[in-house]
Design a protein that fits this description.
The structure holds two protein chains of two kinds. Chain A is of the alpha/beta class. Chain A is built from 16 helices and eleven strands. In chain A, helix 3 runs antiparallel to helix 4. Chain B has a domain of 39 residues. The chains are: A alpha/beta, B mainly alpha.
Chain lengths: 492, 95
Amino acid sequence: MADELTSLTITEARNGLAKKDFTAAELADAHLAAMERARALNAYVLETPERASAMARAADARIAKGTAGPLEGIPLAVKDLFATENVRTTACSRILGDFSPAYESTVTEHLWRDGAVLLGKTNNDEFAMGSSNETSAFGPVVSPWRRKGSHTPLVPGGSSGGSAAAVAARLALGATGTDTGGSIRQPASFTGIVGMKPTYGRCSRWGVVAFASSLDQAGPFARTVRDSAILLRSMAGYDEKDATSVDTPVPDYEAAVGKSIKGMRIGIPKEYRIDGMPAEVEKLWEQGREWLNAAGAELVEVSLPHTRYALPAYYIVAPAEASSNLARYDGVRYGLRVPGGDVTGMYEKTRAEGFGPEVRRRIMIGTYVLSAGYYDAYYLRAQKVRTLIKQDFEECFNTGVRAMLTPATPSAAFGIGEKGKADPVEMYLNDVFTVTVNMAGLPGISVPAGLDAQGLPLGLQLIGRPFDEKALFALGHVIEKAAGVFAPKAWW
Amino acid sequence: MSVDAATVRRIAHLARIAVAEEEVEHLRGEINAILAFVEQLSEVDVGGIEPMTSVTPVQMKRRPDVVTAGGDPDAILRNAPAREENFFVVPKVVE
């Protein structure tokens, strides 16, 4: 029974709860037990069994009274980047220590409003800076996936690696993530699940630990496209506490799942055919085109000429904003403090000990590109390149293209410790297909589409027009129907 | 462009991150690798292009200029590494 409960989709769990086949308390307990057995994955940095039980009991009471919300009793994992009231929130950095927020992030507040149950906080790269979950102060997450016939521990991707691993390993029915350059879509692709980054401004950033404010956006992880649509509807919405959140109605995304895509014009950007792309990724992309074509979509080759400049521009804009955002960690108001004589010495020692190497590196790069004499050459130029990237997309959309199909990642998951040791840029290249979407503020979804020769999942990405998430759910569902659903074999 | 050791020390100080002397050379290498990577932006013609300052073209909303939160010093101070009464405590700044 317990295994059956953790294998349900959100849709199935919602129906089972409504029909009283099981209770929210049983559903939560099944997940808490699975989490305990799966601690070797290091997906959760904090389990919240007491809160989960209390929330599940409250959900059962509302179901009994007939006042159930759209996510009533659905157990979810929350990335440790979301502030959760009175529940330790660290961004997986030593510098936040045992920080206990006095407030709740708007996105998680929406989830609890709709009846969801908090299972715990998930591991992520420190301050969401990374593509493998290896920069976390809590240590790396081990992917539930393994290569055929191998015990080599693999990364789940990052930065939302814990959320992705938890959903893939059946330790939660869904999870929240954040995506600044690919941090939802890349780990979703590596773990064989669905990851959606909504349009910038669709979800409130209030209460989400800030990395790069003009790029950060929250979104859901789930095992099916429909489940993602259900979660996004609850997470999204205008919030007066975030000046960049957009006041436009939240549609019923679930209604788009299963809608016909007949006649939809889908762009295939030729610049995404990059040197050194594995033949399997190329083949999968071709397969995705055939699936959409067979469902009645019209495929057209398009050009996004500034694609190759997105990643270098990102590595100016994101560190610049991070260096400013992370100035708040000064050892005064919360978190770690390391004495250092005078106040400057205290700042410097606190930040040297509190931040890990990748975060220190990015703060320093950001400080450099914003410093006097370099601002125009780096930051201003990068922001102009960003305009060009956005214009590339707009020109394609203006010709009637409704969405674009691309690979989600340039490769399948790699081993822990395999990448980025000698050269940080090697790790950065993971985000080459996803980062353009953040730079242009567009919605993107990664949908599992197949397995490589080693048995590891690969995803396809769909990129949409601003606030046209519905098209992505409709298209994503077509791919999902054709490709099937992928689950790792439990070894933990 | 690339940075020398003195620049690495200057950036570290601006960023208020203590860097030990033996870390400088390593950091210099890493920072220069990233700067070399972003160097390709210099080949893009950005003449006449406006920098992107807003992702979505929306009018910024206004709200009444009233206090919406506050009045709870305990909530604000409860995570402080050092506090005295309703104040954060820092090392002496003025002699």
